[in-house]
Amino acid sequence: MRRAVRLCGSALLGLLAGAAARAEEWQELSGPGVIVEAAPRYAGFAESLVRSFPARAAEVRAALGAGPPALVKVTVARDAAELSRRLSVPLRPWVAGVALKGKAHVGLNAASLRPPTGLPAAVILRHELSHLVLGERLGPERTIPLWLEEGVCQWVGGSAYLGQRSDLVSRLSFGALIPWGALVRSFPDDAQQAALAYVQSYAFVDYLATARGGRFVLELVDAAACGTPVPRAVFELTGEAQVDLESAWMRYERERERRLLYFLQAVSPLVVGAVLVVLAWRRRARVARFLLERMEEEEAMPAALPPVGCGPVREP
Ligand SMILES: [Zn+2]
Question: How far is the CA of 16 from the centre of ligand 1 (A)?
Fold first, then answer.
């Protein structure tokens, strides 16, 4: 009798395990231009991704003059570790999205999308689709400075780091921006410095697009892809030195913060101290959030389309 009970128990456990495994079987949903693969618990999210994908692709096409590949696969995973296993690429735990250039494949970390602190899925999707478009535009042999690529992708995606503009402005005031030359191949490992790298890249590209137009940004991308150093490309395209554009950008950013600075100068030192404490607390919260939100880790894969047409690559 006891043996029979034990056998029944084993069979029950086996059935439960089988049911759990079936419940975790990933499913694929497809729609115009996209295949979304996700576990059943994300079925609703996957459906919304399929429905909204044409709109996201159109937004990217409108901004960059070219759309994502004809068919994009989107993988939605529970967290970065699961996403890493699913895509077979190493990812850091705070990664929110990843674009596999040349494979027309995007990965989304659902943990970083969860309300109320999560990022809008549309922002991450536009960002990662922009990486795919740039990957096809540049081809496998050419790269552009990372600050320019991340700036362009945030400009198209919609910045998720606007709350850190105050950091940017204080850095501007103290002349403590990260040199562009230090952001060519990688961003800093330090979370706060990396956050600054993102917002600095976004803010400068956004300013260039606002002041000179989106077409200028794309011409800058193409020139950089053809090996022209960005300062020289800026001069050839505008007749102005990059440092002059940077000065204009800094004035633009300072003007945006002018009212806040006047307010801080007008209130008493005691209130200033209280404000600084609050800002320090918010900064800590932002950095913690940033660890989950940071979008990078784009794997450079061979692109399927030919690179942007260039003349002979110029010597730096
Ligand atoms: Zn990115």
Answer: 41
Asked if the bond preceding 140 is cis, omega within 30° of 0, the reply is no
The answer to the question of residue 305 being in a domain is: no
CATH code, 262: 1.10.390.10
Model confidence, pTM: 0.75
186 C-alpha to center of ligand 1: Å? 11
Residue 167 lies in a domain: yes
Amino acid at 183: L
Mapped onto helix, strand or coil, the DSSP state of residue 181 is helix
Burial (0-12, 13-18, 19+ Cβ within 10 Å), 208: buried
* Residues 245-265: tens digit of each pLDDT: 988 998 888 887 776 666 666
CA of 159 to the centre of ligand 1 (A): 11
Ligand 1 midpoint to CA 108 (Å) = 12
Residues within 5 A (CB) of ion ligand 1: 153, 295-296
Provide the residue range defining the domain that includes 146.
23-293
Q: What is the mean pLDDT of residues 171-187?
A: 87
Q: What is the number of domains present in the chain?
A: 1
Question: Residue 13: inside a domain, yes or no?
Answer: no
Report the separation in Å between the CA atom of 269 and the middle of ligand 1, taken as the mean of its atom positions. 40
